[in-house]
Task: structure prediction
Amino acid sequence: MRFLSERPSHDLTYSDVFLVPQSSSVGSRLGVDLAGEDSVGLPTPLVSANMTSVTGSRLAAAMARRGGLGVLPQDLGLQELDAAIHAVKNAPALYDALVTVGPEATVRHALALVHGSAGEVVTVLDADGRPSSCLAVSALRHALPDSRVADIVADSIPSIDDDDVTDSRAAFALIDAAGVDAVAVRHHGAITATLSARSAVRSTMYPPAVDAHGRLRVAAAVGATGDPAARAKALVQAGVDVLVLDTAHGHQQQMLSALREVSALGLDVPIIAGNVVTAQGAIDLAEAGASILKVGVGPGAMCTTRMMTAVGRPQFSAVLETAEAAREHGAHVWADGGVRYPRDVALALAAGASAVMIGSWFAGTLESPGEIERDAEGRAFKSSWGMASTKAVEQRFHRLDAFERARKSLFAEGISSSRIYLDPARPSVDDLLDMITAGVRSSMTYAGAANLAEYRERAVVGTQSAAGYEEGKALPVSW
Result:
């Protein structure tokens, strides 16, 4: 990456810069390769943040199915993490995971798990917990909220046998021939998954992120305190593919010590560590054993660190400087936080990030943890909170005695409760990934880059005023 003119002496946010179009021989956005260059090697360079309100097993599986990665948060107990890891590993790589309700579940409960878009399906379990039937969500819309889903009089959606599916294109043909939005998928007669027409198309465009056994990949976070080495070992034994050593201030001795301990175990999985925003921070963590550095202090939508402490750094400059330093030490960086639009993801990758971590944007999706709630106007939302907030502190230290919890909560930062509204046009993480990758792919064609390495080399960045940034936004009303 180079600047259009002289490199500014002051730090820059994503909104301070823009990409300049270059001569290009890349004819189609579908002709570019988004695969990351780092030791994780994601087909799609997007990662969901290790926040309790963002990444659970459902979202982690959805991310991996589209080539990205979900990072389970460190606040979960080992038993919860073990269950989440196994849920991801057992989730289908080609098909849509089941959204299940028990035989006594009400319509109100079922509709809190889905949005109602075309292709959404609810699977009803029998008394033994086995899938018994699949209903299109549209069949629930006109039922009484307190009705049992199992009592709804509606035809089950058609089913296909997974032995009949040779690839995603063939699956789409079967769905199209049935004249429906989605089908149930059976294995030896038992319902194991569903598949919508849109998902079948997406599967032809997004190679999944899978392990050596063809199972979806998943990451988990480990804190720098306690016994990080023991926790890391337990997570890898449970099946985690990537470890993320995470603390708000990653450039400190406690993190470096934890990183050396975990690295010395020889667990044979990539180790990511952070967060840092300086070249020296990146170098020190790389020398301590991290192959990827997580970059960002204070840019997140739920984070109040900069306003509380004045600590942080504008994210574009932080990524640019740390990526340059990391490359000289055989490491890479993930840009963590601060993205509001697909352009910001493109800019982070142009600055040298090998992947981009997203939090609040993904919190407002069907797949994020928690049920869908409705405000007084009927708009769908989910609750979200920062990982240094009072709510997160209480979750993280719930095993401490009441006095110690109370003392730690005095120094909490971040937003404890925020409504993240689901975009009616893009309610799922799949929808957001479509939008983000479309923007990034198009940006790469403007730069004349067929892959991320070429993109980083060919990108030309200019600086702009606040008025220049506003000029690039579409008008919200007609002329």
The radius of gyration is 23 Å. The chain has a mean pLDDT of 91. The CA atoms of residues 200 and 410 lie 49 Å apart.
